[in-house]
Design goal:
The protein is of the alpha/beta class. Helices cover about 40% and strands about 10% of the residues.
Length: about 270
């Protein structure tokens, strides 16, 4: 796999990840996966601590810097309700192309092709409360492009690659999408590996959240004819009405930072 050139806006975030990885003797691709897990767990209220989290307190601060860098990047790139941006897809392609995991490399659908595909299916009548699915979602680009022009629908992303699912969850979270992401082989619908509900209460609270799915919830959701959630007008943080179905302001992300739970044992209690 040839090396993939990271777009300039994403390079500061890439540098945070690679510097941290090389300082601690870690694979940047694995750190990237852990960063996605960090984001998802931080926006999962009530979730138990991550038992597999291997980083110590000082290292957790670096992940918070990555989170801050990501939110600032998204705030600078998303200018209005019809904007969307996927830094994770580019970042993943760049990291994999430079690592020992090159055999797992993927090339995601270019942004302009995603926009073109959505425009080709555009109709004069815009519907809400419908299901829109992508059985090979990658980093979620097609779902984001669809959501930008058709807000108020229930998005379903599926992929056999867990990293792709994690990227899609995070991308849907910050874009104000409502839906679910399923990790499985979409050619075998009865198979279920993992799943996440994204922003299930966004219309009521205006706060982005993620909830882990189990197999029973996955099976029940497949039998529903339309969106399992009512997509309705939401309120901004100040109580003022916003445009119907528009994503919440990025500032609401700061509300959930206190929900992040990680191993807080003193460093000397960890096994060397």
């Amino acid at each position: 796999m040839a090396k993939y050139e990271t777009p300039p806006p994403v390079r500061p975030l890439e540098k945070l990840i690679t510097d941290f990885s090389y300082t601690n003797g870690l694979d940047p691709v694995n750190v990237f996966n852990d960063f996605l897990t960090y984001i998802i767990h931080g926006f999962s209220p009530g979730a138990p601590p991550l038992q597999s989290w291997k980083y110590k307190r000082q290292q957790n601060m670096k992940f918070m810097q990555m989170l801050t860098g990501w939110v600032r990047l998204m705030a600078s790139r998303i200018k209005d309700d019809t904007s969307w941006y996927d830094p994770f897809g580019d970042l993943y392609m760049a990291l994999v192309s430079k690592s020992a995991q090159q055999s797992q490399g993927q090339f995601f659908t270019p942004v302009h092709i995603c926009d073109l595909m959505v425009l080709c299916t555009q109709t004069e009548e815009k519907k809400t409360g419908q299901r829109m699915g992508d059985p090979t979602c990658g980093s979620g680009r097609l779902l984001l492009a669809y959501h930008a022009r058709n807000p108020g629908n229930y998005l379903i992303g599926e992929d056999i690659n867990r990293t792709c699912c994690l990227m899609t969850v995070c991308n849907m979270l910050i874009h104000g999408c409502v839906g679910e992401v399923i990790c499985h082989d979409s050619l075998n619908p009865g198979n279920f590996v993992d799943g996440w509900k994204v922003n299930p209460m966004l219309a009521w609270t205006g706060i982005p959240t993620i909830k882990r799915m189990n197999m029973e919830e996955y099976r029940a959701g497949r039998n529903l004819p339309a969106s399992p959630y009512i997509i309705r007008k939401t309120m901004s943080a100040g109580g003022r009405k916003r445009k119907a179905d528009s994503p919440p302001p990025l500032q609401t992300f700061s509300r959930c930072n206190n929900d992040i739970k990680y191993d807080t044992k003193p460093d000397h209690q960890h096994e060397k």
